[in-house]
Amino acid sequence: MKRDMALIRRLLLSIEKHPDRISGFNFENYKPEDINYHVALLIDAGLLEGDYVRSHSSSSMAPARFVITSMTWAGHEFLDNLRQEDVWNVIKTKFKDDSVATVIAVAKDLAANFAKKKLKGLMDENEP
């Protein structure tokens, strides 16, 4: 199964918006097993606190069930970075096939670099 950064972003946004309803996601154009697989990726990456159970009778890589208790600090930080359109556009086009760890690091670096450019622009505006 291939990782889908758009689904990862959508899951994190949904969990942040509805922390009391963090199970049974139903997104148009996504199969339940795709969603469950991506939830497992987010738990394994440390972006969500929770657990999942794989079915012994299925050949699917997706877990049969999952429980999410919360989004971690790292999950919130990652989502804050993905929320920035400049960062999101680079991630979804240039890093869509990279590992979650790589995407997390790149998103953090991109956000910091965009912030530095913005700060430099503000400082240049205020110079006499």
UniProtKB/TrEMBL annotation:
<protein>
    <submittedName>
        <fullName>DUF2513 domain-containing protein</fullName>
    </submittedName>
</protein>
<dbReference type="InterPro" id="IPR019650">
    <property type="entry name" value="DUF2513"/>
</dbReference>
<dbReference type="Pfam" id="PF10711">
    <property type="entry name" value="DUF2513"/>
</dbReference>
